[in-house]
Design goal:
Blueprint lengths: L2 H9 L46 E2 L5 E2 L4 H5 L22 E2 L11 H6 E2 L6 H6 L11 H8 L9 H14 L8 H7 L9 H12 L6 H11 L62 E5 L4 H10 L7 H6 L9 E12 H15 L12 H9 L13 E8 L1 H10 L18 E4 L2 H5 L10 E9 L3 E4 L6 H9 L5 E5 H5 L3 E5 L5 E12 L3
Parallel strand pairs: 3-4, 10-11
Antiparallel strand pairs: 1-2, 5-6, 6-13, 7-9, 8-12, 9-13, 11-12
Helix pairs in contact: 9-12, 10-13
Length: 521
């Protein structure tokens, strides 16, 4: 080690991996290895300081252990200067290229630009950033890799885009397999011809060993989730303090009548990067279960009453041939909350993606299910991000299918088999319980099921056409600028509006209601 570096590492107790970086040192040839390195592992993860080298676990002469960065960055955090003992050759002279200010979101793939500017997956990116005042390099994460591969900025990867980026990804991050037809079929779980970030992360994450890199993206949505303050009284089902004086310790919750001091925001941290709703029972581990909602049946009964609309459609006659009458009422029997780690993480990442867009969509604030939730009050009134058109919507089914969907999520490849494809092959949702009930089926006990789903409408393609072009609608969402379709048959036929999604990660099933149909004598 050069004398300057050795003196700094041995005499300055503040030089540590988790502290602020010390002054940058000029390139130097190291004369000895003072870090007691383990053998270099070519399959190791990348250094967390985005220097482009692989992780090299070891410890400094001061006894400071490190296992998330390379040897040089353990001594000179983010310095970016490396010799052969640190896993690679020194980068080109720093004045040869500058760092591109757009980073992973740069869409310029011209030869001249790529030659002149360094980007996050380039070997000399960190050193180019270090020589630019006030410029911080983007750490190499799955999000950065995805954004760089997304050359048109659509938020989705085509097979061609991913294949074009494989060489650069392998050069910087590690091995990824060739994209065969079988591999693409596994990657594109929805079968819609493109891959979103969640699908890419599930495929590339285990192979590259990189972090998701979504904490900043999720910051806004996480803040909203932490507003909830569940009641701490044992057995009380209240999910949040309801009232305007929560800061007063003796103020009473309008829902459960317990005082504000017993409603505390737990603000728990999840083990990963994606936070879970504070009112959930599970926060750690790999969970996937239905939680009974005891003591809240009246609340859900009110939701069904608020969203009831009596209107007969051809679909009711088609799906209920033995009794096509519109029920006069619906009686709630059981309610369960779905807590599924995997599908929530995918949904939360997608929501963060929409919230991070430079242009927010035209809002749809009049979705009846969401308005009914607000009328009921409590935490449910504050959970949604209306700025990205996040809504609560219904999806009718049968109890067995409802449980299966909670376990494994929706499958767009099987969509349309029961609802039809008026607006294209996708996932259909209703804002009225009466419309959703048209597609519900009973079990042996005579119970029907409806899913209450969080849905991300994003940029909505509205249509009130009597005979819309389904191919055009699907194309506008999968390959065009839209995220969902709102088909307004309430306007054209006096019946209902329907909302159609073409990506399962735009949906999270949060509740399952089992109910009975009630008819007038």
């Amino acid at each position: 080690m050069g004398a300057c570096q050795a003196a700094q590492a041995d005499s300055d107790p503040e030089v540590a991996v988790d502290d602020e970086p010390p002054p940058r040192f000029p390139p130097a040839v190291f004369e000895s290895d003072d870090c007691n390195m383990e053998d270099y592992d070519p399959e190791a993860r990348l250094c967390k300081f985005a220097c482009g080298k692989r992780v090299q676990p070891g410890e400094t002469r001061k006894g400071r252990k490190f296992d998330t960065c390379c040897r040089m960055c353990a001594i000179n955090k983010g310095g970016g200067f490396h010799d052969a003992t640190c896993g690679g050759k020194s980068p080109p002279p720093v004045d040869s290229r500058k760092a591109c200010g757009k980073g992973s979101k740069c869409r310029d793939r011209s030869e001249a630009h790529l030659k002149a500017m360094a980007h996050p997956l380039d070997e000399d990116y960190a050193i180019a950033c270090s020589m630019t005042k006030g410029f911080e390099p983007e750490p190499i994460t799955l999000r950065v890799v995805f954004d760089w591969s997304d050359t048109d900025g659509s938020g989705k990867l085509s097979r061609e885009e991913l294949e074009a980026s494989l060489g650069k990804i392998r050069e910087c991050c590690g091995a990824l397999p060739e994209i065969t037809d079988e591999a693409w079929h596994h990657l594109d779980e929805d079968g819609n011809g493109v891959v979103n970030f969640g699908e890419f992360a599930a495929w590339a994450g285990p192979r590259l060993g990189l972090e998701l890199g979504v904490k900043k993206m999720l910051g806004k949505s996480a803040t909203t989730m932490m507003r909830a303050s569940p009641c701490g009284v044992l057995g009380c089902p209240c999910e949040s303090f309801v009232g305007h004086e929560a800061k007063k310790h003796d103020a009473k919750c309008k829902d459960c009548k317990h005082k504000a001091g017993l409603h505390t925001t737990r603000a728990r941290e999840s083990a990963g990067e994606v936070p879970f709703p504070d009112y959930w029972q599970n926060h750690d581990g790999d969970f996937n279960e239905l939680i009974p909602m005891t003591g809240k049946k009246d609340e859900w009964q009110k939701l069904l009453k608020e969203t009831y609309r009596k209107a007969f459609t051809k679909d009711r006659a088609k799906h209920n041939p033995t009794n096509p009458k519109v029920p006069a009422d619906f009686e709630v029997v059981n309610v369960n909350r779905n807590e599924n780690k995997k599908t929530w993480e995918e949904y939360a990442c997608r929501r963060g993606d929409l919230l991070a867009r430079e242009e927010l969509p035209e809002l749809f604030p009049d979705v009846k299910t969401s308005l009914a939730m607000e009328k009921i009050g409590g935490a449910k009134a504050n959970r949604l991000h209306g700025e990205c058109n996040e809504w609560y919507l219904f999806h009718g089914t049968n109890p067995a299918a409802a449980e299966a969907i909670c376990q494994t999520d929706f499958k767009v490849s099987r969509a349309g088999s029961s609802t039809g494809t008026l607006y294209g092959k996708g996932l259909y949702f209703a804002e009225s319980i009466t419309k959703a009930d048209e597609y519900a089926k009973p079990n042996d006990a005579g119970l029907y099921a409806v899913l209450i789903c969080r849905v991300l409408g994003g940029k909505v393609r509205y249509t009130d056409e009597v005979n819309p072009d389904p191919e055009d609608l699907v194309h506008s969402c999968i390959e065009g600028p839209y995220d969902s379709v709102c088909g307004d048959r309430e306007k054209t036929r006096g019946t209902y509006r329907e909302f159609v999604l073409f990506d399962s990660e735009d949906v999270y099933v949060e509740y399952v209601i089992e109910y009975r149909r009630k008819y007038k004598d």
